[in-house]
Amino acid sequence: MQTRPAHALPSDHGSRFVSRRALAARSRTSRLLRTTALSCALLMPGMAEAKVSPEEARRLGTDLTPLGGEKKGNADGSIPAWDGGYSMPQPAAGKERDPASYKLLSDDKPLYTISSANLAQYKGKLTAGAQALFARFPSSYKMNVYPTRRTARTPNFINAATAKNAVDAELGNQGESLVGAVTGIPFPIPKSGIEVIWNHKLRYRGTSLQRWNAQLAVQANGAFQPYVLREDVLFQYNKPGITPESLNNVALYFLQFTTAPERQVGNVVLVHETLDQVKEPRRAWLYNPGQRRIRRAPNVAYDNPGTGSDGLRTNDQLDAFNGATDRYTWKLLGKREMIVPYNSVKLLDNKLKYAQIAKAGHMNVELPRYELHRVWVVEAELKPGTSHVYKRRSFYVDEDTWTILAVDNYDQRGTLWRVQETHQVQLAWLDRVGPVCGSVYDLQSNRYLLQEMSNEAPLFKDVEFNIDHFSTGSVQRMAER
């Protein structure tokens, strides 16, 4: 029996074998057809992401936490097993922001401190952004690394909804449409990068609250002027008992009043954050007290400059990332053990003045707390034919809370441009996480932004807002009072 050469195929024209050139051409054609078919499938509006099987979903609460993190610790014990998270009675009035109230954390001492002198020892567990800050500030920048405390904990209704979402949730419209999920984490056992980002956007932060958000655009010499915002938020998606149908395609309602500086007082931003932003883009309005009218604001999205940021962040960088995902492709690179900001109770302290936090070059390095945690790593690449100031973004997402803890943002040349971190604390009497400070370091301008701070402002409070509070008519009336 004659053996056919590995490169030979029957010819369409009667000859027994085809040439290598013909084979290559046919292979290219075959690949093109497969690629075209795949592209068409991905572009189909009704195309949905695969669901998790009931068998796999049963891992939640067994070897996985209720939200999908690994319960077990790591091999050397430096990351402990999750034991249910951190819970405690509400501190006495006025003590909610006293670090001493958080007994699990307040007595901890750093295990070690990373500086430029020993950086090489820890590089493998640091983001590119963290390494860039050591390079920029070799004599003053450092990271105090504390024992890892897996404090994450959520209410039972969030855990139950997450288990249901695991087998019901789907994505359509190229990832911009969430189907069959409500209240809990939509994809606790993620199979793609975009699912991880959806988990961050819809993680539990309460259901209805009022908070203060001070932003400090810190100049190279350390000077800043606080830009203070009062923000009313209704996290409609997270309300217990709500159904996907009753959301009316809105995940959250957001109302932002500027309270300082004086020249900006009275400016208002209103946002209805839609779930499917292909079907209906984010609804946004601006109220200007000089014009005394509210108007639509389609530019409150994507890479337009964020309110009060002095051009140091884009709109979609508030809360590390928010809004539509359609300008990027999202690749899930897997999970890594990394040193990230976590449990930063010192930054929560309302005895601190902003001048004690913001320093020339970078924030006061004695205040942030870093720990070793497992994070999901997601790489976002700008799609051809779309625009954004960031060509590439690397996201590092906590496995226990689904909070984006760090972001590396790259410019159009592929050069690291802005380094972002989220410092958070488990509000242990409320079973939820809250931000205490976000930072965005601009490596090109030698300036940085601190945001989502409230040390010199009132404590957040849970307020039962209804949807009418977030209507344009209501905003106009409130602004004119």
TrEMBL record:
Which stretches of sequence are listed as region Disordered? 63-82
Q: What highest taxon heads this organism's lineage?
A: Bacteria
Q: Which InterPro entries match?
A: DUF1329
State the CDD domains in the record: LolA_like
- According to UniProt, the name of this protein is Outer membrane lipoprotein-sorting protein
Q: What is the lineage of its organism?
A: Bacteria, Pseudomonadati, Pseudomonadota, Gammaproteobacteria, Nevskiales
